[in-house]
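>> received
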Amino acid sequence: MKIAIVGSGYVGLVTGACLAEFGYYVTCVDKDAVKIEALSKGIIPIYEPGLESLVQQTQKMGRLSFTTNLKEAVAQADTVFIAVGTPSRRGDGHADVSYVYAAAEEIAGALEGYTVIVTKSTVPVGTCRKVFDIVRQTNPAADFDVASNPEFLREGSAINDFMRPDRVVIGTQLDPAGHDRARAVLQQLYRPLFLIETPLVFTDIETAELTKYAANGFLAMKIAFINEMADVCEQVGANIQDVAKAIGLDGRIGRKFLHVGPGYGGSCFPKDALALTRTAREAGAPTSIVESVVKSNEDRKRAMAQKVIQALQESPSQSKTVAVLGLTFKPNTDDMREAQSLTIIPALQEAGIAIQAYDPVGREEAEKYLSNITWSDNAYDAMKGADAVLILTEWNEFRALDFRKVAGFLRYSLLIDLRNIYRPEEMMAAGFDYVSIGRPIIYGAKLAAQQETSVA
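>> returned
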């Protein structure tokens, strides 16, 4: 089976490389000639663990190639995936599907023989029907079907998510003769996953389109919920990590996505939750819960900035400089889209706080959005002369800091941990004032200072 992927961004590149690993012949298409030239040389424009080696390996085997020639790639393909971007539309927050429609029109003019056109991009309900109409109007003689196959990839673990997914959702429709040829083609395409007993969920097209938004809306709700419970914990003296563990053991709730933090970010949750609310309102069925989640998350980021400012105000240091560890919205990615740092850092700067920052892979992307920052090459360099350390992203290398070394670099031993990766008792023992989320503030540094004064 030959496959064309239109759009060689994050989703398109991961999809193409993984399908090539399955043994199919895949051609990834993009209008960006510079990107295609780099990809043809095995140079990956994004950071995703394992992706570079997979791309290079499948290229060497002759199963993965890159081109700007859409017509040639589509003409040879049995299946064409549309994997172009659908960013939030300015003004109303809807998903901008103009790139999808433009791709559909181009694909229509290149079709030769029966082809299944699959939307892999995250699109609002009704988009696939519109794609069908565009292709039919552009090329009335074309023999094709349109299907929806939403992606459920997590940045940082996308290859494993594709190779060993919880499920694959495929939306198809019957042709005028009552046949479902697209289902048969896609069932064969995903046969390697069927062999490891991955559930293939076949639905109509509208259900498949809505499923992606419903999944992300629900997960965003879990994150917003546990963050709000953390606020309650701080007021009543409870421990949010114990609360999360206890409710997560309930099989009806589950443990995943109950980790507190400074709000969700990235390319999916913010965009998809907002698009879901707009789609629902237009359909006359407002999703008040999801609308509240969207507002709660935006409020969360601003509240976390104030939490940091308040912690610094209580510090005895007069000049305020913070070492920020982690800028991307999550670890194992260089993605800065809707990153929490983009709200928190400017708020700190407006309060007169200087920023010294370090991120293992995100600096190049971060520099496009953030300014007036002193950049460091490692975590400890960022701490030199700072009044506090602020953990924004839970990269693994931040999980085992040498706090004797940290204390030597800081003017005051204050750690603000917005990911709760350290235990309060160990920070007390290390002599740090420790501010985390949903747990009591620890005053190890202040206690040590009082003890020194008492002895003197």
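>> The longest strand covers residues 2-6.
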